[in-house]
Design a protein that fits this description.
Blueprint (H helix, E strand, L loop, with lengths): L3 E5 L6 E5 L3 H7 L5 H5 L8 E10 L5 E11 L1 H12 L10 E5 L15 E7 L1 E6 L2 E8 L6 E9 L7 E12 L4 E10 L1
Antiparallel strand pairs: 1-2, 3-4, 3-11, 4-10, 5-6, 5-9, 7-8, 8-11, 9-10
Amino acid sequence: MKREFHLACPHCGQLRKLHQDNIDDFYQAHVSRCLVGIASSMFNEIRVTGRILLRLFDPAGDLKDVRLTSNLVVDAGKALIIDRLQGVSGPPAVPDYQAIGTGSTAAAAGDTALGTEIGTRVQGALTQPTALTDRLISTFVAGNGTGAITESGRLNAATVGVLLARQVFSVVTKAAGDSLQIQHDIVIS
């Protein structure tokens, strides 16, 4: 049986009741083109923003829960972007690792780590769905990161590393047999 989920656009707050098969359509058709997000680019400024789409699946592969929220690109992440552009010392590694945790302190520009990281970080698959969108898709398989998940972050190493972005959200309960997929977009506008 296909379930329905309520998702709100992280830009304008528009709430939609969606069947699980329509989540990607809403994300592509509305969220990625929302006028509230686009309006800031009208002043010829460059903004780096993030958003995440979390999908929790039960052991049979059925969708149990879904969340869509904005993500804060932290100061260390902005510095990492500049360092990569400048080719500083290497340059720094690509931020293609996702971490999850149980911390509840709101994300802040000065964050350099998750509040309470759990499980093992996952190196995800990178794609570029549009010229100005970087996408990382990571899956925390059964047994990895079990618990009351309330935060996620994108980093450039399997341990320690530089935090690019972080977000805190309402509890997603990941049971031992569940898998959690996180689609983490970084967008230039």
